[in-house]
């Protein structure tokens, strides 16, 4: 992996982590609101899980393989 590719992955990782934190805040706010839209909360949680999977994938790509 070149330094440029690694930089791009790290930038994408940072964006995804920020979006994940933002979704966490949005979900908490929606759940606290009276008359919360449960379908919207479920959609946001599903998006958050998708982001978590993508973040894990990118972190795995950035972590060098260690041969034991």
Write structural notes for this entry:
- With 68 residues, the protein is mostly helical.
- It has one domain (3-61).
- It contains two helices and no strands.
- α1 (3-32) packs antiparallel against α2 (38-62).
- The two termini are 21 Å apart.
- The model has no long low-confidence stretch (mean pLDDT 93).
Q: What fraction strand? A: under 5%
- Class inferred from helices and paired strands: mainly alpha
Number of domains as seen in the coordinates? 1
Described by the principal axes of the CA atoms, the overall outline is elongated
Helix and strand topology:
Elements: H1 3-32, H2 38-62
Summarize the model shown:
This protein is an all-alpha fold. Helix content is 81%, strand content 0%. It has one domain (3-61).
Descriptive labels:
68 residues, mainly alpha, 2 helices, elongated
